[in-house]
Write a structure and sequence with these properties.
By secondary structure, this protein is mainly alpha-helical. Helix content is 76%, strand content 0%. It has one domain.
Length: 346
């Protein structure tokens, strides 16, 4: 079976990509049938473009903040990797993620390009994994604080707060388990598994356990991650105001967290369809009409694509250089995909 999959891998890759495009288009068609197209057109026609411009600037700043957070996490491993290099990798991964099946695919791209900077493979896996985990933790912490404040002011349905408290409790429980010696022996068993996905999961947990944690470093990294998350939240909220939205700002701390979890599911290309559908659902719980929610989601996706365009230009410039030095950048006997196969990760 393994030999068959390796022999026919190009066919399966192409078929998977076509299937995800079909799913993306189908989801969008379903959404368009659910909404009043006249109301959707009115929403988009009445867009306040100066707010869109302000959101674009904030979301662009978010990419730099993202690179800064990654730099802070990488500090114990590769302090010699420059911030400019990480910003370039971040922009390239953001651009390529538009054509890959999951938000997690951007992590694969980031890991690949960081590997080209002669970083150790374990350090690459550790930094990318920790960046994802810490980013999720900071979002969850901010969502809890913002929604608790909204609840105390009477703006929030009680069910929402309990959902966040449940997520926070599960996260705390998971962190506690990871720190135990029993969990360490479990990780060792996972890494010895015959199943590749199980081995990868064990490796990811091992990287979190092996990170040189101190209380000061944890506070510094988590604190900065929370601050770095603000431009994305505020930029998204400005886009909502641009299409005439009127929800409280605090709602977006939970909204974006839920949407980002949804687009991790690798069923579409670049999150198309899933992203829009998730926004229609979560905004619907707050009473936003489907046409307004879909109008916002389409605008947010379009602005996100524009923000990522510098990454496409950087990829076009650096791709020939990477192709030329790929064999020299990695130690003998190691393996890495060449740049032209990045899109085949789907």
């Amino acid at each position: 079976m393994k030999r068959f999959m390796q022999t026919h891998r190009p066919w399966f890759t192409a078929a998977g990509r076509i299937l995800r495009w079909v799913i993306s288009i189908a989801l969008l068609l379903v959404l368009f049938r659910m909404v009043d197209l006249g109301a959707l057109q009115t929403t988009l026609n009445d867009t306040r473009w100066w707010l869109v411009l302000a959101a674009f600037l904030l979301l662009s700043a978010d990419r730099i903040a993202y690179a800064l957070r990654w730099k802070l996490i990488l500090q114990p491993y590769t302090p010699w990797v420059r911030l400019g290099t990480l910003a370039r990798i971040t922009y390239i991964s953001t651009f390529l993620a538009n054509f890959l099946p999951s938000a997690l695919s951007a992590d694969l791209v980031r890991g690949y390009f960081l590997r080209q900077e002669k970083a150790d493979l374990d350090e690459v896996v550790s930094s990318v994994t920790l960046d994802r985990v810490i980013g999720f933790g900071s979002q969850l912490l901010l969502a809890l604080i913002a929604l608790a404040a909204a609840y105390l002011q009477g703006f929030l349905p009680s069910g929402w707060l309990w959902i966040v408290l449940l997520l926070l409790g599960l996260t705390a429980l998971g962190c506690g388990l990871i720190a135990t010696s029993w969990f360490g022996s479990l990780v060792a068993r996972l890494q010895a598994s015959r199943w590749r996905l199980v081995r990868r999961a064990g490796q990811m947990v091992k990287t979190i356990r092996s990170y040189p944690w101190t209380a000061a470093r944890l506070i510094r990294v988590l604190g900065f991650a929370c601050l770095a998350y603000i431009p994305a939240i505020f930029g998204s909220y400005l886009l909502f105001l641009a299409v005439g939205g009127s929800l409280p700002f605090s709602f977006f701390f939970l909204f974006i967290l839920i949407v980002q979890i949804a687009i991790l599911i690798p069923v579409s290309i670049g999150g198309f369809g899933v992203h829009e559908g998730a926004w229609v659902v979560v905004m619907g719980t707050a009473g936003v009409p489907p046409a307004d929610a879909l109008g916002y989601a389409l605008l947010a996706h379009a602005v996100g694509l524009i923000v990522s365009l510098p990454g496409g230009m950087l990829y076009a410039v650096h791709r020939p250089q990477l192709a030329g030095r790929n064999a020299r950048a990695l130690p003998q006997g190691s393996h890495s995909l060449p740049p032209e196969e990045i899109l085949d990760l789907s």
